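Hi there,

I know you've been waiting on this one. I reran it after we fixed the sequence typo, so this is the corrected version. Both the input and the resulting structure follow.
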Amino acid sequence: MRKISKKGRKEKGKRRKVLDRNFDGDSIFKFTLYTIFAPMNTIHLTKTNSDDPDFRNLVRELDANLRSRNGELMDIYDQHNVIEKIDTVTIAWLNGLAVGCGCFKPFDNTTVEIKRMFVKPEARGNKISARILQELEDWAQGLGFEYTVLETGRSIGIIPKSRLCPN
């Protein structure tokens, strides 16, 4: 629940203290508390393949994001990020909008590599990447794989430290 003051400003977790004066000129404090019910964020995941247009759009946004942050370094990585036909794609939806994705492909007989993990900036902070990663790991395990590899450019918070293996 979000609390909103009389003037419509959003306030978090506190009552709004209003200084008022009564007719004698003495200062008095009034507390006003207004509660509105905001719709909950609805997050769900779907399994699809690399032909899905929502997946393709998210990957284009991911590529643009990476290029803006990493510049020419992406020329090296682009050759590894080609999307061939992949049947193991997960898309995350937030309130009906495609906001995140990930997929995996075989790395060897017992291992898959997690690829194209992305959550739109405006949807971050909702634990969507962790849900996508868990869904992909469960899917891979269901197909008989035992291990996953996820290469990142830096330390990220979606993987518990106990599961990280540095290069």
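Quick highlight: The first helix runs from residue 53 to 70.

Best,
R. S.
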